[in-house]
Design brief:
By secondary structure, the protein is α+β, with helices and mostly antiparallel strands. 27% of the residues lie in helices and 34% in strands. The strands form two sheets. It has a six-stranded antiparallel barrel with strand order 1-2-3-4-8-7. A two-stranded antiparallel sheet has the order 5-6.
Length: 153
């Protein structure tokens, strides 16, 4: 078991390769391999990484909801997997299931709306692995929101 890392479970290590199952489309489940290139940051529900696969560089959000659970030691890692303290398992699973349902809705919406489909082809993916959910999106190189506020851009 890994100890608490500051106020939360640690991010994946740069250079780690993870294999995830795409869950966007139940008729087209497939595995993808990503390599963690950089830890971009942490928000209330996720770590955000820059990752690379055989196609491109992406942004990958890893569901790790410390703000939802509220206990900094509720989650820890065993290898690459997130492990949830039994006390918080029900809440964690409920929010994880909500993300899975959102992925299905998103896929259905994109398939039904041509203009949305044109703008989202290959840009968003929902994946499952390591006992959590990942959301892949296009990587846009730029400055952080905090830096925008600091520089008043």
């Amino acid at each position: 078991m890994t100890d608490c890392y500051g106020n939360f479970c640690p991010p994946l290590v740069v250079g780690t390769e993870i294999e995830l199952t795409c869950i966007n489309d139940p008729e087209n489940k497939h595995n993808s391999r990503f390599t963690i290139k950089n830890v971009l940051g942490r928000g209330g529900m996720s770590y955000v990484y820059t990752v690379e696969d055989s196609v491109a560089v992406w942004t990958l959000k890893e569901y790790c909801p410390m703000s939802v659970i509220g206990d900094p030691c509720a989650l820890h890692r065993e290898g690459d997997a997130i492990v949830v303290n039994e006390k918080y398992r029900e809440n964690y699973d409920m929010y994880k299931e909500n993300l899975i349902q959102a992925s299905k809705y998103h896929t259905s919406y994109i398939k039904q709306h041509l203009s949305a489909n044109i703008n989202n082809i290959g840009t968003t993916g929902f994946y499952e692995g390591n006992n959590t959910i990942y959301i892949r999106s296009v990587y846009e190189n730029g400055i952080s929101y905090e830096m925008c506020l600091y520089k008043r851009v």
